[in-house]
Amino acid sequence: MDKKENDFNPITVDVFDENALGLFLKKIDFAKLNGLIPAVAQDYFSKEILMLAFMNEEALKKTVETGYAHYFSRSRNRLWKKGETSGHTQHIKEIFFDCDNDSILLKVLQKGPACHTGHKTCFYSKINNRLPASDSAGVNESQTGGKNGGAGEEKFYSLKLLYDFISGRKDSDPEKSYVAKLLKGGPEKIGKKLQEESLEVILSAIEGDRNKLIYECADLMFFYIVMLIYSDIDFFNVIDELKRREGISGLDEKRAR
């Protein structure tokens, strides 16, 4: 018998204690795939799909309890925490389950690349079906700016994505990667570039050259991020510090140092 339409209204399940967590786990249908459910990881900010893995009940329980993604490896036949060897963890922001209670969507803060190949996402290959892409309204690429991002297409961008992109270069050959070369030079080399670019920002502001100021600020942000990566400081450590200062007077904060 088909479910009534009002059975499909969105619901929120609170799992703040062991009993509530147990009730939630009983709600999930692990039987269809012999004790497993598919779990999709999605970048919390960019909405990009990062990977697909599987969970058993223990993996889902660990994920809810710890706030970090845990999966079940079918090849190794064991539970594993994402990033347990690479450090590329997935900090959970939200967990959704589908209408059939047999699939999970994790919205995560991804540290480093999600894919073991070093790509940001496991879905870096695609099929060329020779058909024009279209949305639900039948609007194709020629109307939205095309594949390369014309007037109708806006690519998501953030400092977090830039941090991840730069971080992905740290193991590259210093002869072929400027980031790797800077990291090899250490804090002295990176610090010298920060000094140079800071001065360029100040001079551009004094000159009133708007375009040059934008250019130099971009350079400065780049070298700040490289210094964070060298120092093994995650981007969200800085965000957390900024959040801590929210609502605090700048004068009071300086006096408290």
Could you characterize the architecture of this molecule?
39% of the residues lie in helices and 14% in strands. It is α+β, with helices and mostly antiparallel strands. Helix 4 (159-167) packs across helix 6 and helix 5 (178-207) packs antiparallel against helix 6. A hairpin with a 4-residue loop joins strand 3 and strand 4. The longest helix is centred in the last third of the chain and has 30 residues, at 178-207.
Quick structural summary:
Strand 5 (about 90-95) and strand 6 form a beta hairpin.
Write the layout of secondary structure elements.
Blueprint lengths: L17 H10 L9 E7 L5 E7 L1 H10 L3 E4 L4 E4 L8 E8 L6 E7 L30 H4 L14 H9 L10 H30 L2 H21 L4 H11 L4 H6 L2
Parallel strand pairs: 1-6
Antiparallel strand pairs: 1-2, 3-4, 5-6
Structural class: alpha+beta
Spatial strand order of the main sheet = 2-1-6-5
Radius of gyration: 23 Å
Chain-averaged pLDDT: 86
Q: Could you give the distance between the termini?
A: 66 Å
Taken in chain order, the helices and strands follow as HEEHEEEEHHHHHH
Which runs of at least 5 residues are low in confidence (pLDDT < 50)? Answer: 136-153
Helix segment count? 8
> Which descriptor suits the 3D outline?
globular
Give the beta-strand count. Answer: 6
What can be said about the biggest beta sheet?
4 strands, mixed
Please state roughly what percent of the residues sit in beta strands, choosing from under 5%, 5-15%, 15-25%, 25-35%, 35-45% or over 45%.
Answer: 5-15%
Helix content: 25-40%
